[in-house]
């Protein structure tokens, strides 16, 4: 590629002005950063880790900024990445030998950490599409319509995936078999 085809920043009076796309990304960052950190904090429970996960999600968005801008819902794209990073972090932490809770001492924060680990494990046992729908709807707090647009599916499909996923999650987290659906109960 010839040098004149590159989009270099404009230099005026010794000051480098950012490219127009950088301005758009900066506005995106400033608008979405508190929400991205909030989603991560809800999932991991630690402010410092939440900041790191949000920063990683923004770095990924910046690296693919042209693609992200063309996405039907760039906000949802970013929050989906934050959610996936947070769930992966919780799972990784749960496997560390020094992360096991002390069974003798009762610590309410350990109960919350255990619940987060159990939830992350249960989410990973769902199908890929069910994971995406649950994370986007319940953990990132998008509307069913926004989830549908982001994933390129109908709102009815989103509702179906949510129903099946929550049934599986309840069974996993309660340790019981899922309740039969209406059709299974009639034939069962």
Overall description:
There is one protein chain. By secondary structure, this protein is mainly alpha-helical. It has a single domain, classed as Arc Repressor Mutant, subunit A, CATH 1.10.10. It is built from nine helices and two strands. It has helices at residues 20-44, 47-63, 65-70, 74-95, 108-124, 128-139, 144-151, 155-174, 182-187, and strands spanning 10-12, 15-17. It has a two-stranded antiparallel sheet with strand order 1-2. A hairpin with a 2-residue loop joins strand 1 and strand 2 (15-17). Helix 4 (74-95) crosses helix 6 and helix 5 crosses helix 8. The protein is flat. The model is unreliable at 1-11, 101-109 and 176-188 (pLDDT under 50).
Essential attributes:
2 strands, two-stranded antiparallel ribbon, mainly alpha, disordered C terminus, Arc Repressor Mutant, subunit A, 188 residues, 71% helix, disordered N terminus
Using the coordinates shown, work out and report the CATH topology: Arc Repressor Mutant, subunit A
> Describe the biggest sheet?
2 strands, antiparallel
Mean pLDDT level: 77
> Gyration radius, to the nearest Å?
21 Å
CATH architecture: Orthogonal Bundle
The class by helix and strand makeup works out as mainly alpha
Overall number of structural domains? 1
Report the count of strand segments: 2
What is the global morphology?
flat
The percent range for strand residues is under 5%
Distance between the termini: 66 Å
Low-confidence sequence ranges: 1-11, 101-109, 176-188
Helical amount among residues, as a percent range? over 70%
What is the fourth-level CATH superfamily? Winged helix-like DNA-binding domain superfamily/Winged helix DNA-binding domain
SSE series = EEHHHHHHHHH
User: What strand line-up does the widest sheet have?
Assistant: 1-2
What is the number of helices?
Answer: 9
**CATH class category label:** Mainly Alpha
């Amino acid at each position: 590629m010839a040098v004149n085809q590159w989009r270099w920043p404009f230099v005026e009076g010794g000051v480098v002005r950012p490219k127009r796309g950088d301005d758009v990304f900066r506005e995106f960052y400033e608008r979405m950063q508190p929400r991205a950190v909030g989603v991560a904090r809800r999932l991991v429970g630690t402010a410092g880790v939440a900041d790191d996960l949000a920063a990683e999600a923004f770095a990924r968005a910046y690296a693919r900024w042209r693609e992200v801008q063309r996405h039907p819902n760039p906000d949802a794209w970013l929050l989906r990445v934050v959610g996936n990073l947070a769930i992966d972090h919780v799972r990784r932490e749960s496997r560390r030998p020094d992360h096991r809770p002390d069974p003798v001492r009762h610590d309410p924060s350990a109960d919350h950490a255990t619940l987060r680990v159990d939830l992350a494990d249960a989410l990973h046992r769902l199908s890929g599409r069910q994971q995406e729908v649950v994370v986007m709807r319940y953990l990132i707090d998008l509307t069913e319509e926004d989830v549908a647009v982001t994933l390129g599916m109908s709102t009815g499909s989103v509702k179906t995936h949510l129903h099946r996923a929550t049934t599986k999650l309840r069974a996993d987290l309660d340790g019981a078999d899922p309740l039969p659906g209406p059709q299974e109960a009639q034939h069962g």
